[in-house]
Amino acid sequence: MSAKRPRSFYILAGFFALFLLFLYGPTLTIAILSFQGPEGGLTFPMRGVSTHWFADLFRQQAVGDIWGSFSRSLVLGLMVMVTTIVVSVMGGLAFRKRFAGSTVIFYLVITSLVIPSILVSLGVGLIFSQSGLNVHWSTSGYGAQLTWTLPFGLLIMFAVFNRFDPSYEEAARDLGASAWQTIRHVVLPIIAPSLIGVALFGFTLSYDEFARTLLTSGSYNTLPLEIYGMTTNVTTPVIFALGTLTTIFSFLVIAVFLLAVWVQSRRRAQSGSDAGQGML
């Protein structure tokens, strides 16, 4: 017979349910309102149920550049993701040993997380404009977003390499592997799940970043800026349909990265099993 749960359990469960409602309630509300009929508005009660506004997204829009801004956010997210992975791995490898100025560099990297995002956007935009450089989403916007993603990637790599067993590298070098072969065939496969996490951080933080892109994107908006602009001139549920599709896209991205982690873990398990059978 199971023991009776204390009252505190139900209180905490209630708080957790309220937290989930607060967290996902707005998203669910937008998703519901996006299925309004052709005569629907931006508020309840709903006027019919249909997929009219989703179809409207794929027609020529009188306002906004939805698909252009989406493609820019996608390309920018991939650029930031790749750069974050490469720099984070290199930084993690470098910080395994103490070097002159390492402490100062570490705190400079972390400082960018506590500086208000709008100030970073303003500063990067001013540097580019005053230097005669083009303020564009692929240059200044790219640099501004890296100030947000790189610290997260580096912190993850610091934690990973702090727990990394150097005996694996020593064994590879004893077998005649070069420094690059050791990194490629030993280090990277071991830290692959963490690299997937860094990639997910880099892409998702870039994809929905607003403040650090506001003053650095130039004359072409990314998707968050475009959606914000549409809130001032779009008065139909088409904006809710756009929000629903971008949310679904975000979940699909997360699912792809989780699938990559699962495939990687299966491969490692299969490799270990094959190695064990070879020893027998």
From TrEMBL:
PANTHER family per record:
PUTRESCINE TRANSPORT SYSTEM PERMEASE PROTEIN POTI (PTHR43848:SF2)
Member of which family? Belongs to the binding-protein-dependent transport system permease family. CysTW subfamily.
Q: Which CDD domains match?
A: TM_PBP2 (cd06261)
Name it.
Answer: Putative spermidine/putrescine transport system permease protein
Which subcellular locations apply to this protein? Cell membrane
**In this protein, which residues make up the domain named ABC transmembrane type-1?**
70-260
Question: Which PROSITE patterns does the record associate with it?
Answer: ABC_TM1 (PS50928)
Transmembrane as UniProt keyword: yes
Gene3D superfamilies this protein is in? Answer: MetI-like (1.10.3720.10)
Q: Name one Pfam family in it.
A: BPD_transp_1
Instruction: Provide GO CC annotations from the record.
Output: plasma membrane
Signal peptide span: none
Alphabetized, the UniProt keywords read: Cell membrane, Membrane, Transmembrane, Transmembrane helix, Transport
Transmembrane intervals: 74-95, 104-128, 148-165, 186-207, 238-263
- State the membrane topology: Multi-pass membrane protein
Which Gene Ontology BP annotations are present? transmembrane transport
Q: Which domain of life is it from?
A: Bacteria
Tell me the InterPro entries matching this sequence.
Answer: Bact_Polyamine_Transport, MetI-like, MetI-like_sf
Q: Does the keyword rRNA-binding apply?
A: no
